[in-house]
Write a structure and sequence with these properties.
Helix content: over 70%
Number of strands: 0
Number of helices: 8
Largest sheet: none
């Protein structure tokens, strides 16, 4: 089948997931000092920004990947559904991360949990691309073998770097969060400057 329905369904899941992120930021209770309470919500703001960048980068590169994939079969549909399952799940580790930094406890576990989810997302993106590219199974035949291999190597960056950041999170959670931000900013900038450069999760 053609990719239209898969892309439309995927866009819907991305839109819902990225919207749910803001629902994790709770309005301060009445009767409190509003200014101070709003400032104390900074971990929620930070987690929101990180996950918004992550989901945005994944969506951009999911779209770019399906410019090369011209048709889908049952296996690719399944891989994409599993990939979207993790995207839809991302607001939960985002909330866990924010809450851990709010309480000042278990930041390492929360950051490692968050990074682990991103790593698995990257693995599924690689699985989708490798399945589609194997023997030009579902790809545009105008793509050269060299280009396919180049994209394949670029896609590997995501899960590898996220796995490293996840390990770092167990010791230095702040550094891991910084890596999550910088990695996605870098690949978003790369996508802006070079329309053929995929992001880390598809990774991005």
């Amino acid at each position: 089948m053609e990719t239209n329905r898969l892309e439309a369904f995927s866009d819907g899941v991305f839109a819902i997931a990225i919207t749910l992120l803001v629902l994790e930021i709770k309005v301060p209770p009445p009767g409190t000092a509003l200014g101070a309470e709003l400032l104390q919500l900074w971990p929620s703001y930070l987690a929101y920004v990180v996950s918004f960048l992550v989901i945005g980068a994944i969506w951009i590169n999911h779209h770019a990947m399906f410019k090369h994939i011209v048709c889908v079969d049952g296996m690719l549909l399944l891989l994409n559904v599993l990939h979207l399952m993790l995207i839809a799940f991302l607001p939960f580790p985002t909330a866990v991360l924010a809450e851990a930094f709010h309480r000042g406890m278990d930041e390492s576990v929360a950051a490692a949990f968050y990074g682990g989810i991103l790593t698995v997302i990257g693995i599924f993106v690689n699985a989708m691309w490798r399945y589609a590219a194997r023997g030009y199974r579902l790809l545009d035949t105008h793509l050269t073998v060299k280009k396919i291999r180049q994209i394949e190597r670029q896609f590997l960056v995501g899960p590898i770097v996220y796995a490293i950041a996840t390990a770092i999170a167990l010791v230095l959670p702040w550094l891991a969060v910084l890596l999550f931000i910088l990695l996605n900013l870098f690949y978003l900038w790369s996508r802006w400057g070079n329309k053929t450069a995929p992001s880390p999760i598809d990774p991005q």
